[in-house]
Write a structure and sequence with these properties.
The complex is a heterodimer of chains A (about 280) and B (about 260). Helix content of chain A is about 35%, strand content about 20%. Chain A is elongated, with a radius of gyration of 20 Å. Classes of the chains: A alpha/beta (about 280), B mainly alpha (about 260). Chains A and B meet through helix 3 and strand 8 of A and helix 6, helix 11 and helix 12 of B.
Chain lengths: ~280, ~260
């Protein structure tokens, strides 16, 4: 649903208006090669890598919590940079990127979605996988129906929400259900993982198949099931060809893949990429 | 011929029609027949037409009397009631869907009672789609009909009353024929709004092919994977609805 998606970019911290103005000023100043900082306290010589200015990151909705944190840490590590996020469904973001949206970095929730951007020639170099996410069965707190696995979801009177097969979490759910040989008929195929979760939190369904990270960020219980191992989603990230600030964009991608980035992602429930 | 009117009128028309041109320009004309024959397109179209029509009927049955109440009956708090009628216009549809769930959902104010007493559950059903569409579309009908009633000459109704007609007879034989064009226009607006409904529907009724997946929901999901499929679905919805609306308009309002 449109209103739930965060199409409007949000800054990682601070007043959006002044930060954006500040970012624009920093960009202009950097362009003019003037050695002056906008934050006042920031010493331009503090970061020797010359990375500064605004970075716009388009990231899958499931990265909202972890990337917002990473963005703030990145800004602290690189004074003079401002990270702006647009979180939405990966596919919607890919469409926006391919229509020329002014983004520097794109992080998707599935390689298939990333492929639509690379196929259109909008990626600067090959994407790299930085995290993996796995499905869990989200149930109301306390697990009132004692759901222990996928088979329990087919019990009569049990209402289940899945994601639509067109979005990554729905494709993963289909794979897992097929692997388990469970003939599950959901009551709804939601347009994104947050939609499935909100149906559960409103009490309209008894269970939903969502990512472990989304369940962890919400007040629901998560039931792990073995078949989800066969339907793990890789999260790729890439610097975009249309990037206005490619140096800072590359630095941000490196930060996401660094040990500190990995720690933030693991804390949110992601798994590290396969070595 | 005042140019001062023609220039903004022309700009307004271009502004409204230009996005349609964008859709037409990007439409995959070569693969159109295969895409139209894809499974699910007809199902979603049929469901959309059915639910929008039933929702419009519900709106007419409930909305015309409501408009009459607002236009013809003096009662304390009428201004407040009129403002309340427009709430669904102001409410973002997604919020409207959540609000409907809080009332008619499984744990809603009335939902639990409806289920326990009559065995009726509305979320995730076709009836739920009708409910969501009627909720969002009814204000369009009420406002149009109320406007028509206010514009109609009350003296005809008074004359009927003088000649011995009861209130019901006056309403059905004098008032309704008098405002028929207004009711028709309101019903068309209502139907068009119901047909395009997305947010309240997906929030309240969910998305399941053949049961609650209307055309706007199908378009949104097609957009996730295939821009061209989404454009085709949009064009189908547009063509069918414009054809029906244009046809009815000539018939009902006898306009030029």
């Amino acid at each position: 649903m449109t209103a739930r998606r965060k199409d409007r970019p949000v800054t990682a911290r601070g007043n959006p208006g002044t930060r954006r103005a500040c970012a624009a000023l920093v960009g202009a100043v950097a362009l003019a090669l003037a050695a002056t900082g906008c934050a006042g306290g920031a010493d331009p010589s503090a970061d020797g890598d010359g990375v500064r200015g605004p970075v716009t990151v388009f990231a899958a909705a499931s990265l909202t919590e972890s990337f917002t944190r990473l963005g703030a840490e990145f800004e602290a590590a690189h004074p003079g940079t401002t990270v702006t996020f647009s979180f939405a469904g990966s596919s919607a973001l890919a469409t926006q990127v391919n229509q020329g949206a002014p983004a520097d970095v794109f992080a998707a929730a599935s390689p298939a979605t990333m492929r639509t951007v690379t196929d259109a020639g909008n990626a600067d170099g090959p994407p790299v996988v930085f995290a993996r996410n796995q499905l869990v069965i989200a149930v109301p707190q306390g697990n009132p129906r004692s759901v222990a696995g996928l088979a329990d979801l087919t019990r009569p009177g049990t209402k289940v929400a899945l994601c639509a097969p067109q979005v990554p979490c729905g494709a993963a759910a289909r794979t897992a259900l097929d692997a388990a040989g469970v003939p599950l008929t959901p009551v709804t195929l939601e347009q994104d993982v947050k939609g499935a979760l909100s149906k559960l939190r409103l009490g309209e369904v008894d269970a939903a198949l969502v990512y472990r990270t989304d369940a962890a960020a919400s007040e629901v219980d998560a039931v792990e099931f073995p078949e989800s191992a066969g339907a793990v989603n890789d999260y790729p990230i890439v610097v975009l060809r249309q990037a206005g600030n490619p140096a800072a964009a590359r630095e941000f991608v490196a930060y996401v893949r660094s040990d500190r980035g990995r720690a933030a992602l693991t804390a949110a429930g992601f798994q590290p990429p396969r070595a | 011929m005042p140019v001062a009117l023609f220039v903004p009128a022309g700009l307004g028309l271009i502004f409204l029609v230009l996005p349609l041109a964008g859709l037409l320009a990007r439409a995959p004309w070569a693969t159109l027949p295969q895409r139209l024959a894809a499974p699910g397109v007809l199902t979603a179209l049929r469901l959309s037409l059915l639910t929008a029509t039933v929702a419009t009927l519900v709106c007419v049955v409930l909305g015309v009397p409501l408009a009459w109440l607002l236009a013809r009956v003096e009662f304390p708090g009428r201004r407040l009631v009129r403002a309340l009628v427009t709430v669904p216009l102001v409410l973002p549809p997604v919020v409207g869907g959540v609000a409907l769930l809080l009332v008619f959902g499984r744990r809603g104010l009335l939902g639990g009672w409806l289920d326990a007493t009559f065995g009726i559950t509305l979320p995730f059903t076709t009836a739920g789609v009708v409910l969501a569409e009627a909720f969002v579309a009814m204000p369009f009908l009420v406002i149009a009909v109320e406007g028509a009633l206010r514009g109609a000459d009350v003296r005809y109704e008074e004359a009927a009353a003088t000649l011995g007609a009861g209130r019901w007879t006056t309403f059905t034989h004098v008032t309704l024929p008098l405002v028929a064009p207004g009711v028709a226009a309101g019903a068309m607006l209502c139907w068009a709004r119901a047909l395009g409904e997305f947010g309240a529907t997906i929030t309240f009724a969910g998305n399941f092919p053949g049961r609650t997946q209307t055309m706007p929901l199908a378009v949104y999901l097609a957009l996730e994977t295939d821009l061209e499929a989404a454009i085709v679905l949009s064009l189908v919805l547009l063509t069918v609805s414009v054809a029906i609306l244009a046809g009815l308009r000539d018939k009902w309002t006898a306009g030029p």
